[in-house]
Amino acid sequence: MADADTTARAGSDDRATAVGAERTPGRPEKITVIVHSGDFDKMYSAFIIGNGALAMGMEASLYFTFWGLSRLKKGKLDSGPLSKMHMLGLGKAMIKGRMKKRNVRALQDMARDFKELGGKIFACDMTMDIMGVTAEQLEQDLIEEYCAVGTYIKEARESTVTLFI
Amino acid sequence: MAQIHVDCRGENCPVPLVETRKALRKAQPGDVVEVVGTHPSSKKEIPMAVEALGLSLLGVEENENGEWIIRIER
What we know:
The complex is a heterodimer. By secondary structure, chain A is an alpha/beta fold. Chain A is built from seven helices and five strands. In chain A, helix 2 (40-55) packs parallel to helix 5. Chain B is of the alpha+beta class. Chain A binds chain B through residues 48, 51-52, 54-57, 102-105, 110, 113, 116-117, and chain B through 10-15, 17-18, 20-22, 25, 48-49, 52-54.
């Protein structure tokens, strides 16, 4: 009598093992962040977390896809709306004012810091295709590689921390 | 053995961590990096980063202006 249990177990053998992070011994821990959102506040989260990880000695990769990818266009990194309370731009202006008062570093500068500390920025080529964005339109000196989901999965498997922003 | 001074007074998250890391990357083994700042959380978090990086924390002090001074040996 073929039991459903055996069939289920047999099927699970040919999936890739994904137990724990497959890391090369001796290499630092890695964080991988998908930046799907293009919102102003979420972009800050992505870079603060990315830079924080690098400062703590980790490797960090940021994958820009969909709305996040649009923000990689030249000069557009901080052009997104607030994710809430944007209020037709009033909310964003208020937050920017407060950030200026507290001397919060600009997104463009955080992106340069990220690169300087060895962080990697990846641009999703599928998004570029769908949205008709060419490499020339993007901040090319920030971008490590143009890639697809396979690269993300490979790096995510090696990461101890993965986030979706 | 060089002394590297990092002034991040008035800087907000994550700049003190970032500037400390930049200085540590430039430092040679045996150099001392001295970071002075005002951001309260960074006073706790820079020592955390030093530990995570496997380096030596030489000291954490506060001066009369309420600024913290953290000394790290590469």
